[in-house]
Amino acid sequence: MFLSFFLISSFSFSLGQASLPLVVNTWPFKSAATSAWSVLRSGGSVLDAVEKGCARCEVEQCDGSVGFGGSPDESGETTLDALIMNGNTMEVGAVADLRRIKNAIGVARAVMERTEHTMLVGEAASVFAENMGFVAEDLTTNKSLNIFSLWLKGNCQPNYRKNVSPDASKSCGPYRPQAVQTQTRGPRHVGIHSHDTIGMIALDQNGHIAAGTSTNGLNHKVPGRVGDSPIIGAGAYADGSVGAAAATGDGDIMMRFLPSYLAVELMRAGADPSAACKSAISRIKRHYSDFFGAVICANITGHYGAACNKAPSLTQFHFMVSNPESATPILKSVDCF
């Protein structure tokens, strides 16, 4: 019944007219859109477009939530996650908990093209990157150090812990196990400025499609935490016979529902991209009504759409669209529901 409703109503949710080539990315990250669009316009591949677009955000530290110098973890370190997927070969490369390397999306592509693996994580991923010629650099900046210092001075909340109690006077630990029955979870402060991702979809005139993500994760996360961005089907997914999708928001919640994979499968079943995005958000909303998140979708005909959950920190979602209908990337928006 739920799927049937979206298939029947898909026309009313349509946002974008079909036009190729196409680049869609999350948030008002215009420089990233411009970089990706320039690649496609000059005859470059969709993988090049996704890589260059996401890399632009890594260099510019888009909104402080992508690239180096942002989202320090509990120990004050910035680590990066990224994914790139070729929808025509179904190959994927991903990295998580990457240290010392600024170009996370580039390392993800190297995993895809230089190994038979799909994902590398942590220190080993950084060593692999250095072996592939990526330059090791400090990802910490004065800004990220200040974020970390203020967090420590503020008794270290949020700390994303539950069923534990601090041994020290401050709530940042160290921690001891505590009975589940007597522990209530601290407030969860996940929003636009504490965690975000660039998610990007690129489609050329020959039907090639790719998707990718890059992020520095969640502010004050537990070291080793990996969110949805580098997880296939959660952060992004692409299928050359259908289309692609990418997600952004509270990854700890969103990854449990594989919203990007679900959106692509709904488009496979005939749903309009906007309806597919909305259905993927609705699936999560049933369990977490106030979660922070959004999904972008595009099918292989060049139609696109987006949807977001109405939350305290998100009432309207902005995303970029680049196609032949305009000489430059256009900022689009959708009301959250």
UniProtKB/TrEMBL annotation:
GO molecular function: N4-(beta-N-acetylglucosaminyl)-L-asparaginase activity; peptidase activity
Signal peptide: 1-18
Gene Ontology BP terms: proteolysis
GO CC term (a single one): lysosome
Gene3D superfamilies, sorted: (Glycosyl)asparaginase
Keyword Nucleotide-binding: no
Site (Cleavage): D196, T197
Reactions catalysed according to its record: N(4)-(beta-N-acetyl-D-glucosaminyl)-L-asparagine + H2O = N-acetyl-beta-D-glucosaminylamine + L-aspartate + H(+)
Family that this chain belongs to: Belongs to the Ntn-hydrolase family.
Protein role: Cleaves the GlcNAc-Asn bond which joins oligosaccharides to the peptide of asparagine-linked glycoproteins.
Protein name: N(4)-(Beta-N-acetylglucosaminyl)-L-asparaginase
Species of origin: Austrofundulus limnaeus (Annual killifish)
